[in-house]
């Protein structure tokens, strides 16, 4: 059985709604923010982690599946394209094969949503964002990146410096397997040092731009710099969430 609920994003920067951990809001002014708790996902995680999985318990170490639109864009591997454009020397559209032909990066890191859930020791693999930027040649006047999704709804941003961190990757593997449709496959962003909302799913395009353009979640009150570590930036948009 799958049921849908909503990510408690503050509705607007001005009129901030105080939302406690795991509090569920109704439909926001922006429309339904879909979160699906799928039994198939639980089964998958059960397989991935084995019998020691606390994630099968409600609220335990498991992913909640989020989609602003309440649906998942289904993209076949052979149809996948990542368009990199803007302030670059050599604009390029990458296929999944192109990405897999680049030097791979893999590591094990936690995934953490601002709303309080966290999944430790997730196996990730993909290409460093910095390798992609190097291959297209970022122009000197570039300041930031704007990320777009196949869902035509979510967007994200990073500064050029943030994009060069070694644990910021364009991921094609997650939980030790190809990124599933639910989790943003075939390719999602994974920004390890920041909260989960920065890790845009169904990544379709990267535009190199001359100013930070806040993304969907930031327009709705989350910090543009979503650092997990509160000492380097605001760690949480809402003190009641900590
Ligand atoms: N395209 C898209 N990407 C997204 C989201 C979304 O709704 N749409 N939600 C974000 C949030 S708030 C979180 S916590 C993570 C959740 O990742 P998951 O659905 O794989 O658990 O995806 C992020 N990336
Ligand atoms: Mo999130």
List keywords for this structure.
242 residues; alpha+beta; Sulfite Oxidase, Chain A, domain 2; 2 domains; 5-stranded mixed beta sheet; 5-stranded antiparallel beta sheet; 5 helices; 13 strands; globular; disordered N terminus; disordered C terminus; binds the ligand Nc1nc2c(c(=O)[nH]1)N[C@H]1C(S)=C(S)[C@@H](COP(=O)(O)O)O[C@H]1N2; binds molybdenum atom
Description:
The protein folds into two domains: 13-60, no CATH class; 73-242, Oxidoreductase, molybdopterin-binding domain (Sulfite Oxidase, Chain A, domain 2), CATH 3.90.420.10. 36% of the residues are buried. Strand 4 (81-86) and strand 5 (92-95) form a beta hairpin. The two termini are 30 Å apart. It is α+β, with helices and mostly antiparallel strands. The chain contains five helices and 13 strands. The structure holds the ligand Nc1nc2c(c(=O)[nH]1)N[C@H]1C(S)=C(S)[C@@H](COP(=O)(O)O)O[C@H]1N2 and molybdenum atom (MO). The ligand Nc1nc2c(c(=O)[nH]1)N[C@H]1C(S)=C(S)[C@@H](COP(=O)(O)O)O[C@H]1N2 binds at residues 7, 63-68, 113, 149, 151, 154, 183-184, 196-197, 199-202.
């Amino acid at each position: 059985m799958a049921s849908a609920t909503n990510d408690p994003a503050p509705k607007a920067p001005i009129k901030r709604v105080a939302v406690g951990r795991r509090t569920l809001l109704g439909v926001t002014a922006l429309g339904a923010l879909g979160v699906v708790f799928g039994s198939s996902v639980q089964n998958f995680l059960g397989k991935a982690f084995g019998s020691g999985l606390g994630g099968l318990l409600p609220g335990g170490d498991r992913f909640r599946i989020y989609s602003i639109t309440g649906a998942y864009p289904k993209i076949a591997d052979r149809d996948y394209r990542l368009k990199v454009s803007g302030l670059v020397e050599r604009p390029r559209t990458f296929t999944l094969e192109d990405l897999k032909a680049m030097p791979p990066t893999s590591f094990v890191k936690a995934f953490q949503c601002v709303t309080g859930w966290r999944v430790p020791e997730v196996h990730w693999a993909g290409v460093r964002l910095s390798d992609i930027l190097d291959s297209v040649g970022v122009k000197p006047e570039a300041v930031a990146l704007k990320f777009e999704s196949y869902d035509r709804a979510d967007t994200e941003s990073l500064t050029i410096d943030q994009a060069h961190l070694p644990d910021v990757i364009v991921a094609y593997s997650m939980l030790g397997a190809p990124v599933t449709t639910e989790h943003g496959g075939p390719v999602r962003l994974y920004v390890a040092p920041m909260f989960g909302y920065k890790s845009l799913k169904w990544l379709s395009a990267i535009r190199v731009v001359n100013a930070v353009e806040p993304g969907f979640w930031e327009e709705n009150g989350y910090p543009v710099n979503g650092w997990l570590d509160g000492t380097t930036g605001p760690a949480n948009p809402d003190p009641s969430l900590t």
